[in-house]
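Quarterly update from the structural biology core.
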Amino acid sequence: MKKTIKFGLMAIALFAILGVMADGAWADTSTVSGAYIFDKTSVSAGDYVNVSILGLDKNGAVDVYGEQFGATIFATVSSVFGTITAGGSSASSPSPGVYSTDVKYVSLNQGKGKASIYYDPTVSGNDSVNITLQEKYQAEGGGFVYRTISTYTQTIAVAGKAAKAGWLLVTDIVGTAKSFTGDTIGTMTAGASGKQFQVVAYTAVGNTTTDTAASGPVTLTIRPAHDMDKYGNQAKTTYNLTGTMTGGIAYITTDGSIKEAGRYYVEAMFDGKSSVQPLFEDVLDVMPKSTAHHFELTASSKFFPTASGFTPNLWPGASITISSYLNDEYGNRMTLPSGKVDVKIKDKNGIIADQSGSFTPADAKLDFLIDRTDILSNGLDKDGTAILVASDPTKSILDSNNLELEGKKSGLWVDWNVLGTNLTAGNNNAFFQNFSYGTGTTNTFTSGSTVTVQYISKKGTDTCPTSVNPDNTVTVKFNKALTGGYFLFSKDGYAPYWVPGKDIAPGDADSAKIVNAHGSSLTALSVVGNRTTVWSNRVIVTDKNGNSVKNNYNYKVSSSKSGVSFDPTAATGTANDTVKGNNVTVTYDPTKFTGTDDTFTISILGAPGVDPLKPIVTIPGTTSLKTILMSISTTTLPLNGEAPLCVETLDANGNRVNSDIFMTLTGSVTPTVKDNAGNSYINGSKLISTGRTILVLTVPSKTGDFTITFKNAAGTIVAEKQFTVTGSAQQSKTVGDKPGEQKVDVAPSENLNIVVNTTNKYGDTPKYQWFVFTATAGGAQLPLYLLSDKGIVPILPGLDIYQYTYSYPTGSTVQIAQLKMSDLGLKAGDTFAYAYAYETAAGKFVMDNVVIITVK
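Predicted structure, tokenized:
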């Protein structure tokens, strides 16, 4: 096509040189009609159709020379509710389309164009695809003229129900180095817009073949995980984003609403299926912004001591910790990327002494221990309120929140003998408490009164309202287990008591559950291939308050099906196993797959009060090829034509399945068969089908029939289509195909194939090559011209001909154009001559293979 366009430029230049151009347009085309071939005329919502757009000559063959005289042949494709987006955005700039890509304006290349129309999962009904084939050419006075060649309308029936997926995963955050593969943690910055989460639907659980038929709405939920991030941020807000899956893939874009830093779980939902896996968590870390905006202040307790007589032995909680953080504009805790920020903490009421420090990139927070020596009014046995504010002396960062702390002259004291051992969650624990102030002075609780005892730890809080016993002991029952120590205090207004290094242990085993990677309970398990795994770290034994009981309980798995094997053979594992070991894998006999459900019984050994788990296990039936379907809107193809053929491999339910099928090609015509990736298929080729394949059929300039047959390996499933190639090849005389000098007489309207023979009789290897031409018109001799890669130039003295070489395609004979002498404005008695010229590396110049055409 590149050389055809060059020759078209040569023809226009020759018109101008001869001065014989007719009034009006500067271009003409031999394309007189069109053919429009669709692969499918009925699809499901979320699918697409492909169409081949062909420009035909007067003989009904594809017109490969329709653009050679400077015309642009293009198609305007429109749809009522299909999406057409690719190709040129206007009629003045059409561009080539490809199958599986939406288009608006499609330019034809040697008479062939491609387009694709996508149907959103939300649409249904009958669509009208309208195609207008047009010629665009330059008018003599400037500007362009558009002429309609042909119009066509095709109805596409769109079914509203989209195909469903077998398996769903959130696979990637597009444009970052982080993905959700395995245990990798995804990242994004708080408040970021335009980040894309990629969600992929697969044909079956464990199968990584994208289900290209899966289309429809997708919901992405980003919910807080249990852990704080490294900056101390604890996510609290759940975010929901939506998107649309097309062809098995959805890209869901953030809108800037995710502003809270912390660690999150990510879950996609599509067609009732969740992306959360049994093992890998799909964790997203939302990072704080890198610019500090303001300070934050917190305290380990809202109470602090003001009395002077406390001693550490009587009151281990006589000091508290003030923590200062840097926050970004959204209130997220952060670290400095570089440099240093000074902070000063001041009490507006002058009770607690000023504190100061400096943040560096290594500091997520600064801690200040406030003990009796920091209490300016500690000689006053009275209550008071401190109001602390953190500020930047340079005022480049905004002040913190006001942190109000209550000073107390009385504090809670606990008998250490009682707390010398760990408490047990859910059990009643009695210990002595009293208020202490001054040296050795106590004020015990009033018998029968109600107090509220609370603990605070890094793992959370728990509260117990309780009555004071006659012996001034208090019986409390905390339900939440914890480790690593805690503050114990009365909510009725007394400074806390610090219990370091102690746990509140979980209670006795009460129940068990299987959870997914996000901690949600599961009642069903999936089979991957022919096996499923009970992951030990997802079998959780809890006490009656939901605390995980880590007493190394073993569990045993049994199946309701025969033909089942276990690994290990004892079918036992260890519950709550955080190292992800000691799992139980159950393998099914493939010959006994029935598509029915199995029921596991998972017994917790050594815990007779815990009921066995009975999850349902969905055993997939053997998914196999049932039907091969070939789709195309017509089996009559024009000479030199091209058409999309849709080949689908389907199971008994009409769902697309992966299958290897084999192609047989017979008949008097042999087409070229390729897929969209450019892979060629010949008689006997294997097609590795992923459910749907678009094949491009290109037929030669020969009429006749051919048949394409697809079979499975056993030959028991067959699909066959017979095609007819119609039209008549334009009769023409070939000139220039022989080496040496060739003279020929032709009529002005006789069709000629203009060919250049690039061989030489000397065995030379050309370094430079040229295309030289001239003509006589009305008795006038034109000079010699060069047709080059840069355009057409006359050969005049001083011309650097090495700047105007011609790049010939590979081949000893190259067809340049198909035209008539009358196309060049030549009449009887005129001549047209052209020659192949070259120069070797040694400087040898040869003008060989000369063609002289005389118009008779």
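The mean pLDDT is 82.
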